[in-house]
Structures are given as structure tokens and as C-alpha cells.
Amino acid sequence: LEVFGNKEIKLVETGVGKLKAAVAVSRFLAVERAGEEDLFVNIGVCGSNSGYPIGTMLIANKVTDQSSGRDYYPDLVLRTWLPEAPLVTFDSPV
Predict the structure, then answer these.
(1) What distance in Å separates the CA atoms of residue 17 and residue 67, rounded to the nearest whole number?
(2) What's the pTM?
(3) Is the model's pLDDT at 84 over the cut of 80?
(4) DSSP conformation letters of 54-67
């Protein structure tokens, strides 16, 4: 588990894919105790067929797991200037 940071902020490098992300975050939380004031941000890279230019930053306002068909709606607690868009996760590269 790659963890970088200090007392104020931590970065957990999870690797590619939802399974690796889930395992890394679970392991991290088994060691570190999350408090009510803690904030978790998931940052990643993805492809798009929606016409967004390469390098466009977006906020995922809906995440669909393609394999299960389930939809998740992240808590958008921070408002930013970034445009919002839905995201679909896949079990293998598309």
C-alpha cells in the first residue's frame, strides 16, 4: 500500500481498477481512523467518447458500474468550476 503525506493530508496510490481501489482504501482505513471531518477524494484518468478534449477535468456526478448495472451518486460536498458528467466503470479496458 503506497501512502504519501503528513498529519494533514494523505495520498493513497491504489492502482488501476475498481477492485484495486476498494482493496487499497479498505487497507488504509484498517490502519488509519477516519474522523467526521475527514474528506475522501478519488482522482483518476478515463477515456471519453462524449467529445471532451484530452485533458479536460470533470466531476463525476453519477457512477454506473457496467458489470452490475448499479448507479452510484457521489456526495458532491465541494462545489467547483469543473463541469459535471456521468462516468461508467468497466471491468476491463474498453
Answers:
(1) 13
(2) 0.74
(3) yes
(4) TT---EEEEEEETT
